[in-house]
Amino acid sequence: MLDCLFCKMNSGQVPVQKVAENEHAFAIRDINPRAPIHDLIIPRVHIDSGRDFEWVHGEVLAGVFMLSKEVARLEGVWEPGYRLAFNVGDAAGMTISHLHLHLLGGRALGPEG
Ligand SMILES: [Zn+2]
Questions:
Q1: What are φ and ψ of residue 5, in 5° steps?
Q2: Gap from CA of 47 to ligand 1 centroid (Å)
Q3: Fewest CB atoms within 10 Å of the CB: 33, 46, 51, 76?
Q4: CA distance 107 to 55
Q5: Going edge to edge, which strands form the sheet with 20-21?
Q6: Is position 98 annotated as part of the catalytic site?
Q7: Mean pLDDT of 96-109
Q8: Number of domains in the chain
């Protein structure tokens, strides 16, 4: 995608500090954190949102979840725990149309939020 911020970060066109990365995904800190730890795990391939998952994305999604484990350890939230969330669409507050997994932690998060 030519005009996608996350695709530009992946290609290096927009420089960004990465928390961690693997073959399928990279992780950055959210610029508007909702918790003491708030990182985004972003697949390298462009998938618009959770509405656009297909079976062919299976390996990419596994790469996203495997990277989330590494990020949780690096950020020190492995214990007592953390939240993984995909926002889908406007009602969920999705602001960039390139699939990304939110990792939140560093405080008691409650059942939502
Ligand atoms: Zn993209």
A1: -60, -45
A2: 7
A3: 51
A4: 35
A5: 20-21, 25-29, 37-43, 101-105, 83-86
A6: no
A7: 95
A8: 1
